[in-house]
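Board notes, transcribed. Complex of a protein with zinc ion.
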Amino acid sequence: MERVHGGDAGRTARAGDAVLAGRVARAGDSSVVPTMALRLDDVGAASKQHEVYGVTRIPIGRRALPFPGNFLFLKYLPPIKRWGPYPELTAAQWVDVLTALSDAGAELTVAVTAGWVERDGRIVPFPVKFPDAARVLREGVERGVLEIANHGYTHCVTADGLFRPRLFSGNRPWHREFFDWLPEEVHREHVRAAQDILAGWFGVAVETLVPPGNVLSPKTVTVAAEAGIRFISRAGGAPAGAADGITFVDDTRVLVFHDRDLVKRGPAYLERLLHTHRGTRFVSVRALGRLQTAVP
Ligand SMILES: [Zn+2]
């Protein structure tokens, strides 16, 4: 899978990697079961609408020539456009996802951005913005097929309209949420707002944080621990000064893909992914984190 989203997967295992990174022996079970976590990012993130940038180099022979891919409308046109815009997954598509998971006996962690940032800066809770999809996701949680993870409140910097598309440039740098240069209070407000929305709708404690774009600071870790987060799933592991009480889940054993993969390639994408890794036990990120803390 090509990386176009600035490293939400990063060093994390990627869809398409055929190699299993590790094995975990279950307590009381002499057999060894290859176990990985499966994680789907960017559900409910308005960055899929606002994060717009184009290619700025075009390969010609052996050279990569400059190309004004961020100029006006060019950044919206395939194949020049890179990430957004693309639509949110529908309730019907989520039903297909649940079916594919159940058929394969797999669990999935869905990293949800809890607030949808409208173009005027208003923030709408995910279950209000996408009620039908949110209902199917809740059904998946109730059936034990899905874990819901906190993928931030906005996925972007909302101050000064920085998230909005520009006329003459891309806006990718602002579609991360937990920059170290933001005050700790902003980290706290965003983590808590997302926790409240997600726990309120799904009716279960949210224990996993997936920082957008793998960007986080020690401030994020501190406030996450305060807000009940126990596991962080991120390429790159713990930043210096990380708080106690948080387990950074082994990113080499987390297979990451994005809602964009399903929107662009259809539900068959997930079926192929599961088929490619048949023989692997796919669990949630939280379950993998618990295994990690239980195994010496
Ligand atoms: Zn993301």
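Confidence is low (pLDDT under 50) at residues 1-28. The chain has nine helices and 13 strands.
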